[in-house]
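Q: A reviewer asked whether we had any structural model of the full assembly, not just the individual parts. We don't, so I'm hoping you can provide one. Inputs are below.
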Amino acid sequence: MSVASFDSIAAVLLIPIGSAALLAVLPGYRLTARLNVVASLATFLAALSLFVVDRPEPGPYVLVDDLNIVFIVLNTFVGFTTSIFSASYIAHELETGRLTPVYLRFYHAMYQTMMFGMNLAFVSNNIGLMWVAVEIATLTTVLMVGIYRTHAALEAAWKYFILGSVGIAFALFGTILVYMAARPIVGEGQDGMVWTILIQHAANFDPALLNVAFIFLFLGYGTKVGLAPLHAWLPDAHAEGPTPISAVLSGLLLNVALYALLRFKILLAANPAAIAPGPLMATIGLISVIFAAFMLYRRRDIKRLFAYSSIEHMGIIVFAFGMGGPLANFAGLLHMVMHSLTKSAIFYAVGHISQIKGTQRISRIRGLTVTHPALGWGLIVGVVAIAGLPPLGIFMSEFLVVSSTFARAPLLAIALVFGLLLAFGALTLRLTSIAFGEPRGSTASAQASYVPMFAHLSLVLIAGIYLPAPFVAWFQHVARLLG
Amino acid sequence: MQMHSLSFDVSHTLAGGLVLISFMMLYQDRLYSLLNVFALHALVLTLSVAWQAYVQNAPHLYITAAIALVFKAIVIPVALHRIVKQLGIHRDIESAVGIGPTMLAGMALVALSMVLMLRVTAEADPLAREDLAFALSVVLLGLLVMVTRRNAVSQVVGFMSLENGLVLAATGAKGMPLVVEISVAFSILIAFIVIGIFLFRIRERFDSVDVSALDDYRGEHR
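A: Here is a predicted structure for the entire assembly that you could use as a starting point for your response.
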């Protein structure tokens, strides 16, 4: 049976990279967009099969455990739905001439390469390999952010690249320090980078070295999570690239960096003498929430608005994991899944809206429920969900974060609620002007694919009303793993 | 005093030399001279890595040294020279901060990394800990170069000197798996391709590679 499970992992990695090579050479929009969807679907199915096949023993490079299956399945699912959205989005971009056929090939190849990088980061058991994978995913998104080659797109890509590189450097330095800490205990060579071996011996590592390593890793991967003082690349990158990329940036790439952070958090928690990573994460998370909530009020660009909302939600998730404990970890995981689904659904709507209106300026988009009911109401449901209103899934996860915090640190909980309410206010303010009122701008009918958007939103709605018991049990188990 | 053996002294000198050359980068006000200093930086890195390969009896490190020599000390400086010439930007570098404050900040960063790393790694072997302290200094100085320059080419040079610091740290960590050295070299390669594309595009769209020229196009100000 171990052969079968190895095959699933291989498929999760080989399908994206193989199709990337294929998409780079194949001409024609119809064929390549469909191939992109098919490849993404195949990857998703391969990821699902990880649930049923036997897991391999953790090797020097590959690891499958209860934690990363959640991430892989979420990643490949959103990757699949985004590829459907991308097909209709890109068709419009080709019509308007914003993308040429050559760039289309490049775009599809990069899309699959990015999926490969993200999946590799999730399955890697080697902290060096994980670093490489996160870098592959980041560099491909840098290229895609700059794909329109406008002034703004180039600036966004350049900023993303420069800040991302600093993150790259710090994360690698932290990785080297972890190896240095492990070397006296685990021995030289390969073993000093294998996560499952590191975690067994972590209690004996030099705590001081491990502390410094975590600071660097937190700075490095934290830059990619988009945490507050290091977030500057995020709004620009979201606003200037193609909208499918905004959707995968918010929904997936931030999760990849978060996953890397969580792995190292578990490592640090296994050493009793090292600093507890929790308070640091909780503080930065809270700062991100409140900062992003204030920034939401001044946004004029619809994609930037939701980019800042992503910073806010990553702040909530990092805060929840920082608080730790089974309940807060459960809430953090649930919130991460809900946020990925909701935010990508919002970007699907926003992508079509900005294509129809020909602008991303909020003041030029009005009365959507009148002119484009499906898009308008889809967006409303999405924003209501992201703002944390019942009965949708994010309400539940936010409620869990807040209530678990109230029991242990009421002051922090009050600060968090303050941030959440601020963000809620900003989003409702913008939503009313976008969705209602006198229609403004083009009223051309949309050639949109609504399936991905409504699929995500209904999943979020179902999760808000009823969580299946096996799902809850799985998440509770993972939450305990996270310590 | 076994630790003050020849091998220790040589690696110490080379790593210290890298920090010194990083300082030299801080006050170069011409792009050509900045590129020359970077080539020197990469050359000293090559010597340092080769020395580590010899001392640690780790032949695979010679590959890393060769990459540093061929790629960073020769190919990239030559290519950037040509880019600078083609773009006609071999005049003064616009630095965002004056040389005086930059040097002071550099000294503070080096002091910080010494204090931090030497204190933290008190129990590691002396060669590794001093190597790490120097490496962190080089990384932070590279960061400072990136922060204090506005010009895209000099930001790239700053980034590459930062990467040199990482290679120094990785080779100083005895027995670190080859995976990482290759990945570092690889990331530099990819980074350079990316940068090359960007420079090309920026050149295509604008007549300057001054990144500050792009600042006006932030979406919020439209």
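A: Points you may want to mention in the reply: DSSP finds 19 helices and no strands in chain A. Residues 277-483 of chain A form one domain.
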